[in-house]
Amino acid sequence: MGSADAITTAAQAGAWLEGLINHERMASFRAARLDLAPIEALMDRLGRPDQGLSILHVAGSKGKGSVCLLAEAMLGAMGENVGTFTSPHLERWTERFRVGGQEVESGELASAAEFVRPHVESMRAVPGGPVPTFFDATTAIALVLFADRQVDRAVIEVGLGGRLDSTNVVQSAVTVITQIELEHTDKLGSRLEEIAFEKAGIVKPGVPCVTGPLVEPAQRVVDAKAQEVGAPLARLGREFFLKRKTEGQALGGSFDFLEGDTRVESLALPLLGRHQFDNAALAIAAIHRLRGVNGQRGHEGIRAGLANARLPGRLEILCEQPRVIVDAAHTEASARSLAEVLADQTVERRGLVLSISRDKSVASILKILAPVTDEIWLTRAEATRSSDLDVLKGWVDQYMPQIPQHAIESAEEATRAAFASLGPNDLLCCAGSVYLAGVARRALRLPDPSRTV
What is the enclosing helix (H) or strand (E) of 263? Predict the structure, then answer.
């Protein structure tokens, strides 16, 4: 490959990765995810950049991105140099790759992509050989970046499932399973036990595993896997606990973390949503199991990291007067958490901009959000994945028949139209997909002197 077409910017790296996605959507694409052979082979070609990394590996149906960013914030406050890999991104490809609490620079991402690309393309060109996928390539880029930066810790979010996810190539120091619910049933299975089996695939022999409060069928599967491989298991509500000290606050509050003789008291968490307390407790329990993280330095880092934690696109307040909340909620459980937060807001009207991907349970999400919605704008945030407007309209007619509705194809136009309709004491929520969260953040970033940001 000549230098003329070398990857030199993050935009070019993203274009190459998106090209892999497009290729994989073609009927002729031959790869089937039956094992991890392609990513294993790719890592071997790259010199195993994951070796030597102290890795916190996080899976789950919801909350895994939040746990990753909370762990990053706390470890960073302890003075650790942390590499964090999450997906998907809201606005920029560089968001997926963070070192030291900051997105990597465009040129740095480009350099890592250019290093990985010839290996991916060589493997794809071999008839009958292992074929790296888009997410194999993306995961490899993250691990190359972290190895180059010599991070102290790497926090890695599973993309889909766990057992056959590209990230499961790593040898973790600690694993986390946040929650398990029915999701991606076309790929992971139609029963909770099947989905739990895929998530539990990240549990490694002898490696500590931390879990959230799982529903009983899923907990049985995870317990069995941990026992099978000899992984010490700690469960929120059984082996470690949180005691929330403030209730009824619109924004965050404080809590105590308790496990055995360890007690970290009065931890401030300035985030919307009760579920974030669970995520914070999971992150703390996981961090405690990393070698070298304990004692007073650990407690001070936990306190400082949580107090300054920010979670873009996750019940994020973009501005006030009117209040605008952006949330990537796209499952029943996340919709319930969102509805609880919206019900707690003291406002005159609640507007909702909604875009939901085709593979999500539109009916379930609308039923949950209907009681906290006064007006709705339907849109499509992503051309190939979002539900068609007429499909969304049909569901809204059924579950929100009395609510004024608008259908606008462009997500940016829908967001701005909804925002323009609000009074200073109203609230706007943009939810239903990660894609819409990203569009809303871009659309409402322009300064407006009439609003308080």
Answer: strand 262-269
* Positions of E strands within 189-289: 209-211, 233-235, 241-244, 253-259, 262-269
Superfamily of domain 50-104+138-307: Mur-like, catalytic domain (3.40.1190.10)
Question: Would you say domain 316-443 falls under CATH 3.90.190.20?
Answer: yes
Measured CA to CA, the distance from residue 188 to residue 344 in angstroms comes to 34
Q: Which residues pair with 319 in a beta bridge?
A: 324
Distance CA 203, CA 170 (A): 11
SS3 content of the chain, % helix, strand, coil (to 5): 45, 20, 40
Please say whether the dihedral angle defined by the alpha carbons of residues 169, 175, 179 and 180, taken in this order, is positive or negative: positive
pLDDT by residue for the chain (453 residues), tens only, comes to 344 489 999 999 999 999 998 666 665 566 566 789 999 999 999 999 999 999 999 999 889 999 999 999 999 999 999 999 999 899 999 999 999 999 999 999 999 999 999 999 999 999 888 899 999 999 999 999 999 999 999 999 999 889 999 999 999 999 999 998 766 555 555 588 889 999 999 999 999 999 999 999 999 999 999 999 999 999 999 999 999 986 545 567 899 999 999 999 999 999 998 889 999 999 999 999 998 776 667 789 999 999 999 999 999 999 888 999 999 877 888 899 999 999 999 999 999 999 998 877 888 899 999 999 999 999 999 888 888 999 999 999 999 999 999 999 999 999 999 999 999 999 999 999 888 999 999 998 744 433 433
3-state secondary structure 332-401: HHHHHHHHHHHHCCCCCCEEEEECCECCCCHHHHHHHHHHHCCEEEEEECCCCCECCHHHHHHHHHHHCC
Asked whether the beta carbons of 183 and 159 are under 8 A apart, the reply is no
Q: Is residue 433 helix, strand or coil?
A: coil
Helices 332-343 and 362-369 sit at what angle, rounded to 10 degrees?
10
Cα–Cα dist 439/430, whole Å: 9
Distance between CA atoms of residues 134 and 286, nearest Å = 29
**Domain-by-domain residue ranges, the chain?**
50-104+138-307, 316-443
Do domains 50-104+138-307 and 316-443 share one topology? The answer is: no
Tokens of 262: 């360890």
